[in-house]
Amino acid sequence: MRFLVAAERAFLETLANRRFGLPTVDFAFGTTAMRSRLSSVVRSFEGDQDRFTLVLGHDTYQSDSMEMGTSLLSADDIAGLRARRILLNEGAVVPPGRSSQGRPDDSMVEVLVRGMQSSLSVEASPLPQLFHAVGVADQRYFLAAAKLTAVLWLKLSGTVAHVLELEMKLKRTNSLEVHFRGARGRVYSNREPDIIEVDGVCRLE
Q1: Cβ distance 181 to 167 under 8 Å?
Q2: pLDDT tens, 31-51?
Q3: Does 55 share its domain with 82?
Q4: How many CB atoms lie within 10 A of CB 97?
Q5: Are 144 and 117 in a shared domain?
Q6: Which residues pair with residue 32 across a beta bridge?
Q7: Contacts by 44-50 with C-beta closer than 8 Å and gap 24+?
Q8: Sign of dihedral through CA atoms 48, 136, 166, 86?
Q9: Which residue stretches of 47-184 are H helix?
Q10: Nearest Cα to 127, choosing from 168, 73, 67, 180?
Protein backbone atom coordinates (compact mmCIF):
# COMPACT_ATOMS: atom_id res chain seq x y z
CA MET A 1 0.00 0.00 0.00
CA ARG A 2 1.32 3.45 -0.90
CA PHE A 3 0.71 6.25 1.59
CA LEU A 4 -1.11 9.31 0.26
CA VAL A 5 0.76 12.53 -0.29
CA ALA A 6 -0.81 15.77 0.90
CA ALA A 7 -2.23 16.82 -2.49
CA GLU A 8 -3.85 13.41 -3.03
CA ARG A 9 -5.35 13.40 0.46
CA ALA A 10 -6.78 16.90 -0.01
CA PHE A 11 -8.35 15.93 -3.34
CA LEU A 12 -9.94 12.78 -1.89
CA GLU A 13 -11.20 14.69 1.15
CA THR A 14 -12.96 17.10 -1.19
CA LEU A 15 -14.64 14.20 -2.99
CA ALA A 16 -15.62 12.49 0.28
CA ASN A 17 -17.35 15.68 1.46
CA ARG A 18 -19.42 16.02 -1.70
CA ARG A 19 -23.02 14.96 -1.57
CA PHE A 20 -23.87 15.56 -5.21
CA GLY A 21 -22.09 15.85 -8.52
CA LEU A 22 -19.36 13.26 -8.12
CA PRO A 23 -17.18 13.30 -11.24
CA THR A 24 -16.61 10.76 -13.96
CA VAL A 25 -13.18 9.16 -13.67
CA ASP A 26 -10.94 7.08 -15.88
CA PHE A 27 -9.80 3.93 -14.11
CA ALA A 28 -7.26 1.24 -14.99
CA PHE A 29 -6.37 -2.01 -13.23
CA GLY A 30 -4.15 -4.68 -14.75
CA THR A 31 -5.15 -4.75 -18.42
CA THR A 32 -8.67 -3.42 -17.80
CA ALA A 33 -9.66 0.18 -18.35
CA MET A 34 -12.99 1.91 -17.89
CA ARG A 35 -14.64 5.30 -17.63
CA SER A 36 -17.21 5.50 -14.85
CA ARG A 37 -18.98 7.98 -12.63
CA LEU A 38 -18.09 7.74 -8.94
CA SER A 39 -20.99 6.41 -6.90
CA SER A 40 -19.50 7.28 -3.52
CA VAL A 41 -16.28 8.07 -1.68
CA VAL A 42 -16.01 6.72 1.88
CA ARG A 43 -13.29 7.82 4.29
CA SER A 44 -12.08 5.63 7.16
CA PHE A 45 -9.06 5.48 9.46
CA GLU A 46 -6.58 2.68 10.16
CA GLY A 47 -4.25 3.65 12.95
CA ASP A 48 -2.86 7.05 11.99
CA GLN A 49 -3.52 6.58 8.26
CA ASP A 50 -6.45 7.65 6.11
CA ARG A 51 -8.15 5.15 3.84
CA PHE A 52 -10.48 6.21 1.05
CA THR A 53 -12.78 3.72 -0.66
CA LEU A 54 -13.99 4.80 -4.09
CA VAL A 55 -17.09 3.01 -5.40
CA LEU A 56 -17.52 3.10 -9.18
CA GLY A 57 -20.71 2.71 -11.16
CA HIS A 58 -21.09 0.91 -14.47
CA ASP A 59 -18.63 1.50 -17.28
CA THR A 60 -19.99 4.51 -19.16
CA TYR A 61 -17.35 4.63 -21.88
CA GLN A 62 -18.44 4.15 -25.45
CA SER A 63 -15.94 4.83 -28.19
CA ASP A 64 -17.15 7.91 -30.01
CA SER A 65 -14.21 8.12 -32.37
CA MET A 66 -14.65 7.64 -36.10
CA GLU A 67 -12.28 5.09 -37.60
CA MET A 68 -11.30 5.35 -41.21
CA GLY A 69 -8.28 4.85 -43.40
CA THR A 70 -6.81 6.47 -46.47
CA SER A 71 -5.80 5.20 -49.87
CA LEU A 72 -2.51 3.94 -48.42
CA LEU A 73 -3.27 3.42 -44.73
CA SER A 74 -6.02 1.20 -43.37
CA ALA A 75 -7.84 1.93 -40.11
CA ASP A 76 -5.64 -0.74 -38.50
CA ASP A 77 -2.51 0.99 -39.83
CA ILE A 78 -3.71 4.25 -38.28
CA ALA A 79 -4.33 2.47 -34.97
CA GLY A 80 -0.79 1.10 -35.12
CA LEU A 81 0.58 4.63 -35.53
CA ARG A 82 -1.55 5.78 -32.60
CA ALA A 83 -0.21 2.92 -30.45
CA ARG A 84 3.36 3.93 -31.29
CA ARG A 85 2.60 7.52 -30.39
CA ILE A 86 1.11 6.53 -27.02
CA LEU A 87 3.89 4.10 -26.13
CA LEU A 88 6.95 5.57 -27.88
CA ASN A 89 5.92 9.22 -28.41
CA GLU A 90 6.40 8.86 -32.16
CA GLY A 91 4.86 11.28 -34.66
CA ALA A 92 2.44 10.38 -37.44
CA VAL A 93 4.52 8.81 -40.18
CA VAL A 94 3.88 6.32 -42.97
CA PRO A 95 5.13 2.86 -41.91
CA PRO A 96 8.36 1.62 -43.52
CA GLY A 97 7.82 -0.03 -46.90
CA ARG A 98 4.88 2.17 -47.91
CA SER A 99 5.17 4.09 -51.15
CA SER A 100 5.53 7.84 -50.76
CA GLN A 101 3.81 8.47 -54.09
CA GLY A 102 0.25 9.63 -53.62
CA ARG A 103 0.66 9.63 -49.86
CA PRO A 104 -2.24 11.32 -48.05
CA ASP A 105 -1.61 14.78 -46.76
CA ASP A 106 0.25 14.65 -43.45
CA SER A 107 -2.41 16.82 -41.81
CA MET A 108 -5.08 14.22 -42.62
CA VAL A 109 -2.94 11.42 -41.21
CA GLU A 110 -2.40 13.52 -38.09
CA VAL A 111 -6.16 13.99 -37.61
CA LEU A 112 -6.73 10.24 -37.93
CA VAL A 113 -3.91 9.32 -35.56
CA ARG A 114 -5.18 11.72 -32.92
CA GLY A 115 -8.68 10.29 -33.32
CA MET A 116 -11.60 11.89 -35.11
CA GLN A 117 -14.34 13.16 -32.79
CA SER A 118 -12.67 11.33 -29.92
CA SER A 119 -12.93 12.38 -26.29
CA LEU A 120 -9.28 11.32 -25.89
CA SER A 121 -7.14 13.09 -28.48
CA VAL A 122 -3.71 11.48 -28.74
CA GLU A 123 -1.44 14.41 -29.47
CA ALA A 124 1.59 12.94 -27.68
CA SER A 125 2.54 10.19 -25.29
CA PRO A 126 1.50 10.75 -21.66
CA LEU A 127 4.57 8.85 -20.43
CA PRO A 128 7.27 11.59 -20.47
CA GLN A 129 5.04 13.97 -18.52
CA LEU A 130 4.19 11.20 -16.05
CA PHE A 131 7.88 10.44 -15.59
CA HIS A 132 8.70 14.04 -14.75
CA ALA A 133 5.78 14.14 -12.30
CA VAL A 134 6.60 10.97 -10.33
CA GLY A 135 9.36 8.91 -11.91
CA VAL A 136 12.39 10.94 -10.96
CA ALA A 137 11.69 10.45 -7.26
CA ASP A 138 10.12 6.98 -7.39
CA GLN A 139 10.98 4.89 -10.45
CA ARG A 140 9.18 1.78 -9.18
CA TYR A 141 5.94 3.72 -8.76
CA PHE A 142 6.46 5.29 -12.19
CA LEU A 143 6.64 1.89 -13.90
CA ALA A 144 3.41 0.76 -12.27
CA ALA A 145 1.69 4.04 -13.12
CA ALA A 146 3.07 4.01 -16.68
CA LYS A 147 1.57 0.59 -17.41
CA LEU A 148 -1.84 1.62 -16.12
CA THR A 149 -1.71 4.92 -17.99
CA ALA A 150 -0.75 3.16 -21.22
CA VAL A 151 -3.58 0.64 -20.85
CA LEU A 152 -6.04 3.46 -20.22
CA TRP A 153 -4.95 5.47 -23.26
CA LEU A 154 -4.75 2.46 -25.57
CA LYS A 155 -8.26 1.35 -24.73
CA LEU A 156 -10.09 4.65 -24.28
CA SER A 157 -8.64 5.97 -27.53
CA GLY A 158 -10.09 2.95 -29.33
CA THR A 159 -6.61 1.82 -30.39
CA VAL A 160 -7.13 -1.73 -29.11
CA ALA A 161 -9.95 -3.66 -27.50
CA HIS A 162 -7.68 -6.01 -25.54
CA VAL A 163 -4.18 -5.63 -24.14
CA LEU A 164 -2.46 -8.99 -24.59
CA GLU A 165 1.08 -8.14 -23.47
CA LEU A 166 2.64 -5.01 -22.01
CA GLU A 167 6.14 -4.92 -20.59
CA MET A 168 8.07 -1.80 -19.61
CA LYS A 169 11.60 -1.43 -18.31
CA LEU A 170 13.59 1.68 -17.49
CA LYS A 171 16.72 1.80 -19.60
CA ARG A 172 19.27 4.07 -17.96
CA THR A 173 17.46 6.98 -16.33
CA ASN A 174 15.69 8.65 -19.22
CA SER A 175 14.46 5.89 -21.55
CA LEU A 176 11.61 3.40 -21.28
CA GLU A 177 11.88 0.10 -23.13
CA VAL A 178 8.42 -1.06 -24.26
CA HIS A 179 7.03 -4.35 -25.57
CA PHE A 180 3.34 -4.43 -26.45
CA ARG A 181 0.81 -6.68 -28.17
CA GLY A 182 -2.86 -5.78 -28.39
CA ALA A 183 -5.92 -6.95 -30.30
CA ARG A 184 -8.15 -4.60 -32.22
CA GLY A 185 -11.92 -4.75 -31.84
CA ARG A 186 -13.73 -7.34 -33.93
CA VAL A 187 -15.35 -5.84 -37.01
CA TYR A 188 -16.27 -8.92 -39.06
CA SER A 189 -17.58 -12.19 -37.62
CA ASN A 190 -15.57 -14.25 -40.14
CA ARG A 191 -12.28 -12.42 -39.62
CA GLU A 192 -10.01 -12.38 -36.59
CA PRO A 193 -9.13 -8.89 -35.28
CA ASP A 194 -5.75 -7.51 -36.26
CA ILE A 195 -2.94 -7.64 -33.71
CA ILE A 196 -0.88 -4.51 -33.08
CA GLU A 197 2.70 -5.03 -31.93
CA VAL A 198 5.02 -2.30 -30.70
CA ASP A 199 8.65 -2.72 -29.63
CA GLY A 200 10.91 0.24 -29.03
CA VAL A 201 12.19 2.87 -26.65
CA CYS A 202 10.33 5.94 -25.40
CA ARG A 203 12.63 8.81 -24.51
CA LEU A 204 11.43 10.41 -21.27
CA GLU A 205 13.43 13.64 -21.48
Answers
A1: no
A2: 777 777 777 888 888 777 778
A3: no
A4: 5
A5: yes
A6: 29
A7: 49/3, 50/4, 50/9, 50/12
A8: positive
A9: 75-88, 106-114, 127-130, 139-156
A10: 168
Q: What does the alpha-carbon distance between residue 157 and residue 121 come to, in Å, rounded to a whole number?
A: 7
Strands 24-29 and 162-171 come out as unpaired
In whole angstroms, give the CA distance from residue 51 to residue 49.
Answer: 7
Distance CA 61, CA 166 (A): 22
Task: Write the CB contacts of 8 (distance below 8 Å, at least 6 apart in sequence).
Answer: none
Q: What is the mean pLDDT of residues 87-93?
A: 80
Model confidence over 69-81: pLDDT tens digits? 777 888 899 999 9
Distance CA 133, CA 128 (A): 9
Q: Is residue 84 part of a domain?
A: yes
What domain range is 199 assigned to?
75-203
Q: Does 66 map to a domain?
A: no
Per-residue pLDDT tens for 171-199?
877 899 999 999 998 777 778 889 999 99
For residue 11, what are the contacts with CB-CB under 8 A and spacing of at least 6?
none
